[in-house]
User: Fold these one by one.
Assistant:
Number 1:
Amino acid sequence: MNGFRDRKEDKGPKLRINEQIRVPFVRVVGENVEPAVLSHRDALKLAEELGVDLVEISPKADPPVCKLVDYQKHLYQLKRKQKEMKANSVKTVVKEIRFGPQTDEHDYNFKLKHAQNFLEEGSKVKAYVFFKGRSIVFNEQGQILLLRFAQDLENLAKVESLPKLEGKRMIMMLSPKSAKKK
């Protein structure tokens, strides 16, 4: 093997067409065709008469559903539909803000302004307090800091998860409020 994959097989969904369909009876649907249950041989003859392919679209149905359609056109429509769905999907961005257990006021306000900007852009904010060495004994301070952070951002964000200690980090997730109140 030379390390290259056969790309012709990778494109599109795996659909059985024409003679690849191995069931005695199929339910035939399509444009200008009345839905009916036909034998596989009769369905192939009908597809040949119309100059289209017999494409199995629902193999788990009883009997399997096959559509009379041009196979290449069907693949093109499926790919276009998937591309539209991908374009319409919302991509969530998570921005991280790191604190120490003894973060002073100036640093806190600086990070608070960044978090406000991130939330206004529509990004989620993952705020966490990182404990180094023995500073883990101040985990109550970390929790107080994160709760204060959430309270200061309550007009822009809602808390997805309350502060939770995971190893040496205490993490809290904030997401932007969807609708602003006027």
Number 2:
Amino acid sequence: MDREAMLNRAWDRNAARWTRTVRDGLIPSRRAGTDEAVVAAIAARNPRRLLDVGCGEGWLVRRLCRDVDCTALGIDGSASLIEDARSADPNNSYEVASYADLIGGQTRLAGGFDVAVFNYALFDEQVDRVLAAVAALLARGGVIVVQTLHPWALSQTETYGDGWRIEDFSAFDGEEWEPMPWFFRTLESWHATIRAAGLTVVDLLEPKSPVDSRPLSLIMVCKAVTD
């Protein structure tokens, strides 16, 4: 089984566990500030229409529609997670759509989004094509917001270089998780990937831990080079 198939299987098998973990607030980095950071980065753009790509159980759509006067669509490749999102939020729209669907133009998304967000949702090796596909759905002047693991985070314990890693979810006690492969990128590699998608970074943010000031995440706000 290739890594993409393993990644998709992991999300399907972990869906119920992930929903409980998010809704019970069990992820330390999110409590420390990454949730608030991505909400602030999006709200600063004052979007009227928002697309959450890889929305999971839908927390970000719910939060932004509460805090910002916008309409939102959440999409995810996991039917189980989309079902959880719809159950928690009947007022907004959620659709099952994989990244392969986006790349292949097999969705019926209307486009015209002011902001599209990937919040810890880019785990594969080749993501420039999905970024380019989503960029085509933006309104004029729209942006893509990407929040991801800060490259510094692994540089203290592992070789600093692109490559596949395994998330075993060992930080979450009491659950049997399906291990998930994911692709680590250096900062240089992120820059090259975004450029390959026809995008440029217009803002870069590094939310920091309130305890030790270490970076919690990397947030990149990107727009099309032609805008």
